[in-house]
Amino acid sequence: MRTGFVSSDLASGDARVPDHTGLSKEAINRDFPILSRKINGKRLVYLDSAATTQKPQCVIDRIESYYASQNANVHRGLHTLAEEATSAFEATRDKIASFIGGVRREEIIYTRNATEAINLVAQSWGRKHIRENDRIVITRMEHHANLVPWLVLAEETGAELEYIPVDSQGRLILDNISNIIDSRTKIVALTQMSNVLGTINPVDEIIEVAHRRNAMVLIDGAQSVPHLPVDVKALDVDFMAFSAHKMLGPTGIGILYGRESLLDRMEPLIYGGEMISEVRYDSADWAELPWKFEAGTPNIAGAIGFAPALDYLNSTGMDKIREHEIELTEHALDRLAGLKFIRIYGPTSSEQRGGIISFVDSEIHPHDLAQFLDASGIAVRAGHHCAQPLMGLLGVNSTARASFYIYNTKDDIDELVSALRDARRYFIND
Amino acid sequence: MTEQLDDMYRDIIMEHYRYPRGHKEISEPDLANQGHNPVCGDVTEIKLTLDGDRIEDISVNCVGCAISVASGSMLADMIEGKTISDVRKIAEVVRALIKGEEIDTDLDLGDLEALEGVRNFPVRIKCALLSWTTLVDAIEAREVGQTVEASTTE
Fold first, then answer.
1. pLDDT digits (tens, 9 = 90+) for A270-302
2. Cα–Cα distance between A138 and A201 in angstroms, integer?
3. Nearest to B1 among A2, A368, A375 (CB)
């Protein structure tokens, strides 16, 4: 059985298809040092960008240069270092505001991650506005981060949590949407791109229905903002959460976009330094937006290191990135369809999905499969992807998931496909 | 790495995975528990009947990866006919073996020895322990006159 562990020649043969839309091989090698690493003696094929993306050299360098030459706390010093750190920290905020469609800098709140951004809305806005018998609407494809906060809020307030259903191809069923988003609905929270199925949801349609009912809309943009051109003004969305580390930036820095008029009337979630304008022994006043929500020393290096990531995405172009990922996804769907033992979840059309593909082998458990792929240098995720209820809906306990980004090539996908064949030989003598 | 992979997926493990022992239904168990591994979604259900302090019959129904299914199958093989106190000793030795800890024992572990390859893959240790944790939790609850409804590897 184990002598069957051979690396197929498919990936290195002449059948190689050139990439038209991606970064050049030279750019990938130059800009993403980790991708030159060998894993278990094999070239690293990183297909887990939906979990976190790799970082370009410019991001790594910026974090180092901040610590090496500018390190200081922000917003509270008059010395040169503090001024430089503050100005770089705030400059990223401007870049983010422009990256998502030119919103006001006051509308960009730094958090630790997308999860914290969603919790901020659920707990600050939610506790103030959600009452018994109100309705909160989410979908059946949400990540736990956009499910558990609403579950808890519904339980605390006595509100009703209602789900938009999902069809067998992993798309939202919107036939009944105006009954689901009814007049009692106060907020609709949904992902723009599923982290399991890759489905891109028609959020514009849902925002329109919700606004007709005077309900707020929160978009979980953790997977969409890194991969699609997203314009929050054009979408007319009320809140959007996303995370730097899924878009070439550092971990520990997330973003909440919120409409200024809403943020203005929201109470802070965390109290302390840096979020106040004046403190007395018997009372305190909150700082202006955005700092009202940013108590304590923030992730300064994270915010500063996020700026070159945004520059990198801007100079590559989000349209180009989307185009490249459509090409990769089509190639992957096509090649995987040739493997009769692989079942793919999610929409079959690349227009309706991003570069995230969940799949199972008919006989090999995802955990065993991921372990085997790792021995071949290929990093995929296996598990429930923080979406246990959705797994139940799909009728599986777990799936394997390959996800792509700017630095992936068709060669990477071909290596995955050939290793999936090798796994059959290894585990079941197929 | 391939060697390490081979060391974990030994033939004997794959044999238990394909033909798991104890894969049946026990309708009136004296002791039962379900376990799940929240990291990967694997689940196991263990039921057994007792003759006094001795395990008369055992079923292990595990839905999971090769490691968790094989470990559950070996558990069924190993503990049938043993007393509750034997099982506790065996479980302790198995736990040490899987975690790569030194343990002084003259116990003959049989097929279970094959699980030692798991020690090179820390993430998989919980897979190998799933059924054992589930069984030991049920036994410990019984000893203090209680029952458990479910166990997790966390």
1. 998 888 888 999 988 888 999 999 999 999 999
2. 12
3. A375
For residues A24, A25, A27, A30, the Cα torsion angle rounded to the nearest 10 degrees is 180
Catalytic residues of A: 386
Buried-state track B85-114, b at ≥16 Cβ within 10 A, e below 16:
ebbeebbebbbebbeeeeeeeeeebebbeb
CATH class of the domain defined by A2-47+318-428: alpha beta
**Tokens 């033939």, residue located:** B11
| A82 sits in which H/E element | helix A80-99
CATH of domain A59-315: 3.40.640.10
Whole-number Cα distances in Å, B70 to A108, A412, B31, B35, B56:
51, 32, 21, 15, 21
Burial A286-317 (b: 16+ CB within 10 A, else e): bbebbbbbbbeebbbbbbbbbbbbbbbbeebe
- pTM of the shown model: 0.91
Query: Do the Cβ atoms of A397 and B63 come within 8 Å?
Result: yes
CATH of B2-152, one of 3.30.420.10, 1.20.120.1460, 3.30.1330.60, 3.90.1010.10: 3.90.1010.10
Across the interface, do A2 and B41 touch by the CB < 8 Å criterion? no
